[in-house]
Specification:
37% strand, 5 helices, alpha+beta, eight-stranded mixed β-sheet, Nuclear Transport Factor 2, Chain: A, globular
């Protein structure tokens, strides 16, 4: 396995466990995270802000699982086709297909872009979920326009 592949798989294994302390070392200090459906103006930058951003979606869940899939590596770049299962304590479940693009340099991820259908998540989530997101702390927001 290449260093790029090992880094990507290591990140997703830690993320699947929601082990935030294990996620952070996989992210470069200037790593940019972008949920592509929401555009570059709602990106996050750096391990602490990326983790804060991801926790907004994951912390309310009773269970989260990443289902491993195809990983294609070309040097420092990786394309990872996978899926996620989100389960809420109220019984709702979302099955989300993803394609994620990563750039890895010196063993750390410098770019993380998630491509997915936001309607799949919104239509599966509890009715209160969007309101909870709107009320969440957004101090992590980084405008990545021109960076990605």
């Amino acid at each position: 396995m290449t260093d790029t592949a090992a880094t990507v798989r290591g990140l997703w294994a830690a993320l699947s466990r929601r082990d935030w302390d294990a996620v952070a070392p996989f992210l470069a200090d200037d790593c940019i995270y972008l949920d592509v459906p929401y555009g570059p103006t709602l990106a996050a930058r750096g391990p602490a802000d990326i983790i804060a951003r991801i926790k907004i979606g994951f912390e309310p869940l009773s269970d989260y699982r990443n289902h491993d899939g195809l990983l294609v590596v070309d040097g420092d770049d990786a394309i990872y086709e996978h899926s996620e299962r989100w389960e809420w304590p109220t019984g709702e479940v979302a099955e989300l297909p993803f394609v994620t693009v990563h750039r890895v340099r010196d063993g750390a991820i410098t770019l993380w872009k998630d491509y997915w259908d936001s309607a799949t998540l919104v239509n599966s989530a509890p009715a209160s979920w969007m309101a909870d997101l709107a009320a969440a702390d957004t101090s992590w927001v980084f405008d990545a326009t021109g960076y990605v």
